């Protein structure tokens, strides 16, 4: 802890913000708004301090991760710890060979909901393990009958059927409602098919461009905005996936190079 304290930059805040010491029962009704503002400022100051912001207890309590503060990734949906089941890929070669529940593994992951995708990370390292894109087949089911899992939650798209296990039916319902409402509000354009069979709607007056990378005089590779590359180079440029990894972005660039 001594080394960590010494490594903190001088410009960063070091002291914990304070809350009022008076009891809530003694506060007059006309002062409720100011007390709420004090609590909001308290949480905001904590999130500005990397030592507390990156602490797993803070992440779980407030429902944030390191991706919550990257504005280029779009609006923030709900986040939290979940248990996810292995398998469910519609891509040949990524599923286990056995049959039944004995073949599956359950792992604890941090699930993040964004406007055009869902992803889960490893809680200890923060490494992104999988990205589930919102597409025309995106659908959510809950219940043991649909998921073969008690308090299960199933999220489908063109490339995978992801099974999550929740603590209770109410917990599963909370995830289902939170994901569905957020996607319907912010990602509805990805739920239908668009021009030329594309999964994405036509965007007018946007700063995102489709740059061209010339690897040879006879080759030209087009790829999407760079924040997709930073997030997931394993994105499939041609969907649904029917030819293995042939049309995965990193495989296309490697093949052309």
Automatic annotation (TrEMBL):
Occurrences of domain PH (ranges): 75-184
Pfam families: PH, PX
Annotated GO MF terms: phosphatidylinositol binding
Highest taxon listed in the record's lineage: Eukaryota
Disordered: region residues: 1-31
Stored PROSITE patterns: PH_DOMAIN
InterPro entries noted in UniProt: PH-like_dom_sf, PH_domain, PX_dom, PX_dom_sf
Protein name (database record): Phospholipase D1
């Amino acid at each position: 802890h001594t080394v960590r304290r010494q490594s903190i930059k001088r410009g960063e805040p070091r002291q914990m913000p304070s809350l009022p010491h008076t009891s809530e029962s003694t506060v007059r009704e006309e002062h409720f708004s100011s007390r709420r503002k004090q609590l909001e400022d308290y949480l905001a100051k904590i999130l500005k301090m990397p030592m507390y912001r990156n602490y797993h207890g803070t992440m779980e309590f407030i429902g944030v991760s390191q991706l919550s503060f990257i504005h280029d990734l779009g609006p923030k949906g709900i986040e939290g710890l979940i248990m996810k089941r292995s398998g469910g890929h519609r891509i040949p070669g990524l599923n286990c060979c056995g049959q039944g529940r004995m073949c599956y593994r359950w792992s604890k992951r941090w699930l993040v909901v964004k406007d055009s995708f869902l992803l889960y990370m490893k809680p200890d390292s923060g490494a992104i393990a999988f990205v589930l894109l919102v597409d025309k087949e995106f659908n959510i089911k809950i219940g043991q009958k649909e998921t073969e899992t008690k308090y299960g939650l199933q999220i489908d798209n063109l490339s995978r059927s992801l099974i999550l296990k929740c603590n209770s039916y109410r917990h599963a319902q909370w995830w289902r409602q939170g994901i569905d409402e957020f996607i319907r509000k912010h990602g509805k354009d990805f739920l239908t098919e668009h021009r030329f069979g594309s999964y994405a709607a036509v965007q007018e007056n946007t700063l995102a461009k489709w740059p061209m990378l010339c690897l040879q005089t006879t080759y030209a590779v087009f790829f999407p905005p760079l924040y997709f590359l930073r997030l997931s180079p394993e994105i499939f440029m041609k969907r649904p996936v029917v030819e293995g990894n042939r049309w995965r972005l990193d495989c296309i660039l490697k093949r052309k190079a």
